[in-house]
Amino acid sequence: MVKICCLGAGYVGGPTMAVIAYKCPEIEVVVVDISTARIDAWNSDRLPIYEPGLDDVVEGCRGRNLFFSTDIEKHVADSDIIFVSVNTPTKTRGLGAGKAADLTYWESAARMIADVSKSDKIVVEKSTVPVKTAEAIEKILTHNSKGVNFQILSNPEFLAEGTAIADLFSPDRVLIGGRETVEGRKAVETLKSVYANWVPEDRIITTNLWSAELSKLAANAFLAQRISSVNAMSALCEATGANISEVAYAVGKDSRIGSKFLNASVGFGGSCFQKDILNLIYICECNGLTEVSDYWKQVIKINDYQKSRFVNRIVSSMFNTVSGKKIAVLGFAFKKDTGDTRETPAIDVCKGLIGDRAQINIYDPQVTEDQIQRDLAMNKFDWDHPLHLQPMSPTAVKQVRVCWDVYEATKDAHGVCILTEWDEFKKLDFQKIYNNMQKPAFVFDGRNVVDAEKLRKIGFIVYMIGKPL
Ligand code: NAD
Ligand code: UGA
């Protein structure tokens, strides 16, 4: 029986390994983590992450061939294939701070693997890492090896949160990069045979290590660039009377461009787009490619511009001040169908409104009050460095109330601000909301989910992204 161990029981390690175990009953999969709380949650009825379909998959194989444990060294020593899916956040201090990837977690994982391994291992980079990381990992492993051989593979993950299970069941592609040696090719074939249990052969791409590492950064950069492109157009639509939905539809009909991922929004969020582009920018700079790094910087600049443009629109529409006004924020997660708030645009929008002294009531069906307060008190880039958690700012806490009901959140509000595209926001009783709000009642839809004409008929003043007023 092949034994797999995965370091990191997070948004990637947990679902990815659960699907491997589910699809390959003959493989034993153990997911380990340094966080006891996370492992306890994976072993409980309330999993640590909200992801549609995940409960059923875990239930189908936990205790059969899927296990969650904190006994890291034992399971690493026992396994044949070790996936490393630890966090790789942006560095907050030292060389490359604010751009480069912080590989502290990865390096300590590699040192531990070298230390405890008594048999040959395939070590798989599942985390998103800078191109050439495998070379560094290889050095750490071989220089600390106790006479065993390590083969390093790059197998980046392309799942999106909210659709992780569907993405893992039927991936557009699985990418495996390895050394172009006999041993390297053998390791690639071994990992390929795991995925071949459910992924068609023509969707499993094999490349050299550096292509696999760079393809992951490139894919995220291309995806984020699409959103910044459509968001840049949305600003021009607002200035000219064009409608971004019509423009995106017309543009996306060109089969060379395609219709997906063209929804204008308050800006992209999530733990990876910004982090991975910053990482790409840093690599370009280190290679002297200033023009290339400047090109990718613009994707992040437009995203920041879109978020501040949204805040400015709220403040200027509400007679240039929101001081003391109540604003209901609907949705805090970075996208629907997840409770993840990492780099959510809601943080920047709420901080902007708090800065203008608004009182905000926040409602999100999947995000806890604790999480929201922590996010609003934290400095940029600190969220993924658990050791650097900042204390909560007392002013921010005072101005924020977290509600568990939309109607409670919107009661007596001067404005409603939609920041996540939860399906339930499309079905709200807006007449009831309007009746209980201060007048004039404003709606600022940062996700273009409401029927603006219907709301205007009720009496709302409605602002959508990239659409005529
Ligand atoms: P996460 O923070 O949810 O999970 C990482 C886990 O690793 C944490 O639980 C942490 O405690 C654990 N960890 C850290 N050091 C460890 C060690 N030495 N041994 C064992 N466990 C350790 O992060 P994530 O969202 O799962 O992302 C992981 C990687 O995957 C990142 O590089 C990210 O860029 C990449 N990625 C994420 C997504 C996504 O949708 N979240 C998608 C594709 C790729
Ligand atoms: C993204 C990629 O889609 C995954 O392929 C990749 O594996 C992952 O990053 C990663 O490396 O972490 P994810 O961030 O989970 O996945 O979610 P997306 O669906 O890509 O959405 C990212 C952000 O862009 C969200 O805030 C979303 O609301 C926003 N978005 C997305 C738009 O504003 N408009 C769109 O048309 C699409």
TrEMBL record:
Its biological purpose: Involved in the biosynthesis of UDP-glucuronic acid (UDP-GlcA), providing nucleotide sugars for cell-wall polymers.
GO molecular function annotation: NAD binding; UDP-glucose 6-dehydrogenase activity
Domain (UDP-glucose/GDP-mannose dehydrogenase C-terminal): residue spans on this chain: 328-452
Key words of the record: NAD, Oxidoreductase
Protein family membership: Belongs to the UDP-glucose/GDP-mannose dehydrogenase family.
Domain of life: Eukaryota
Protein name per the record: UDP-glucose 6-dehydrogenase
Catalytic activity: UDP-alpha-D-glucose + 2 NAD(+) + H2O = UDP-alpha-D-glucuronate + 2 NADH + 3 H(+)
EC number: 1.1.1.22
Pathway where it operates: Nucleotide-sugar biosynthesis; UDP-alpha-D-glucuronate biosynthesis; UDP-alpha-D-glucuronate from UDP-alpha-D-glucose: step 1/1
Catalytic residues as annotated in Swiss-Prot or TrEMBL: 272
Matching Pfam families: UDPG_MGDP_dh, UDPG_MGDP_dh_C, UDPG_MGDP_dh_N
SMART domains according to UniProt: UDPG_MGDP_dh_C
Positions that bind NAD(+): 8-13, 33, 38, 86-90, 127-128, 161, 272-275, 342
A Gene Ontology biological process term: UDP-glucuronate biosynthetic process
InterPro entries per the UniProt record, alphabetical: 6-PGluconate_DH-like_C_sf, NAD(P)-bd_dom_sf, UDP-Glc/GDP-Man, UDP-Glc/GDP-Man_DH_C, UDP-Glc/GDP-Man_DH_C_sf, UDP-Glc/GDP-Man_DH_dimer, UDP-Glc/GDP-Man_DH_N, UDPglc_DH_euk
Cellular component, GO, one term: nucleus
